[in-house]
Design brief:
By secondary structure, the chain is an alpha+beta fold. It is built from 18 helices and ten strands.
Length: 416
């Protein structure tokens, strides 16, 4: 950012005066190349350049979610843990006096990291949050950061950061984490089991209020909360629900669902979010639009969308059951037999078999708590296994440990 370049003809005619942000040093070439702001002040300096990107992000507007329909669906489908695996809500916020992380100097990044972590450590005398430095974790505890990624406590963007002064503050129960110096200064996140968007939103709202008493966040009356990427302007919220959609997947309806979601301002992603593939027929459904409604309204709209998907998943599942009587039950017991007895199991195979077994619980063939499935999804991932064991394991050792973890959890399970 702010590197020297040749002046344009217009600049030469104006005496060689290039437009440069006085706060972060970004120039018009930087803005055009990245499509992102270098700091909150760039939205004023380069208003004309950023306007098309902002307008494109704001083309889709969401109607206010039908609250009465949401409550009707909740009444008709009170149990949805078979399909809704977990919920997550994340708020992007930036400290107003610093450039955004990609443009900050090393000294500025360190100041942000130290100020935020000092504040978080001060909560409950240091017992509420654990501080993880990504660079230190990779050098001293090589599997810790990768395990945090596998457990969805940090993003792949933060994990891939090479600079110092990047990390996270993670609560003792691991419901809440604050990513520091990712794309934005703060990514305040809550993740909970099942369809718990409202609870997650309450978590991040409370934490944001607490942080705002100490730090001033970048805000504009017209654009809302200011973020590095214009697509996050407004509320700065990303909400998502991890759904288990075997019926959509097996019937081919997953492609139709993807098209419908994009058209209405939502998106469907893989197990680890944007740019990743689904594993074990698990998908993330999340909002794309961050403006036009309040953060709470966006959460409620996603809630209604997810409940409709749950309704449709069950309808498709019933149709598959009626068209292939006995087939699903046979697959379920075959999967359970392998999961409960195998001594060697690869990661992809385990995820596929757990997906089939989860269907077995939903149709009443198996009696296994959904919490056990949710726990296994993360415990059997390679870096999490190595982190828990405390050493680097080869593929065969990983497969043996993975099989044992699954057997130990299932050995006392009651089945019909």
């Amino acid at each position: 950012m702010g590197s020297s370049r040749r002046l344009t003809i217009d600049e030469l005619m104006n005496g060689g005066k290039a437009v440069v942000c006085p706060v972060c040093g970004s120039n018009d070439d930087d803005i055009i190349e990245s499509g992102r702001a270098g700091c909150s002040y760039c939205y004023k300096v380069f208003e004309a350049l950023l306007a098309p990107r902002i307008e494109a992000a704001q083309q889709i507007s969401l109607p206010v979610p039908p609250m009465e329909f949401t409550e009707i669906l909740r009444a008709d489908y009170p149990h949805y843990d078979d399909i809704a695996v977990s919920s997550r809500v994340r708020l992007a916020r930036n400290l107003s006096i610093f450039p955004f992380p990609e443009v900050m100097t090393q000294k500025e990044a360190a100041e942000v990291f130290e100020n935020v972590t000092e504040f978080m450590v001060g909560i409950a005398n240091g017992s509420a949050f654990k501080i993880v430095s990504i660079s230190e974790s990779k050098s001293e505890k090589p599997f810790e950061a990768a395990s945090l990624l596998e457990r969805h406590l940090i993003s792949k963007e933060l994990f891939n950061k090479r600079a110092d002064s990047c990390g996270a503050a993670i609560s003792a129960d691991e419901h809440v984490s604050i990513m520091i110096n990712e794309e934005d200064h703060l990514r305040i996140q809550s993740i909970r089991e099942g369809l718990a968007l409202r609870d997650c939103f309450e978590d991040v709202e409370k934490l944001e209020t607490m942080l705002s008493e100490r730090f001033k966040f970048a805000y504009n009356d017209k654009l809302g909360w200011l973020t590095r990427c214009p697509t996050n302007l407004g509320t700065g919220i990303r909400a998502s629900v991890m759904l288990h959609l075997p019926a959509h997947t097996d019937s081919g309806n997953i492609h139709r669902l993807s098209t419908e979601l994009v058209r209405t301002g939502f998106t469907i992603r893989g197990f680890y979010g944007e740019g990743t593939k689904p594993i074990g027929r698990l998908y993330q459904i999340s909002n794309q639009v961050t403006h036009g409604l309040s953060a709470r309204q966006i959460v409620e709209h996603l809630n209604a969308v997810v409940l409709r998907i749950i309704q449709r998943e069950r309808e498709i599942q019933r149709a598959l059951d009626s068209n292939h009587p006995g087939f699903i039950e046979d697959n379920v017991w075959r999967a359970y037999g392998l999961l409960s007895t195998a001594r060697n199991m690869g990661g992809n195979e385990a995820m596929q078999l757990l997906s089939i077994a989860r269907v077995g619980v939903s149709i009443g063939e198996l009696q296994i708590p959904y919490h056990s499935f949710n726990e296994l999804l993360h415990r059997i991932q390679p870096n999490t296994i190595c982190n828990n064991v405390g050493e680097n394991l080869g593929e065969q050792e990983l497969n043996r440990f993975r099989a044992k973890i699954i057997r130990d959890l299932l050995q006392n399970t009651k089945t019909q």
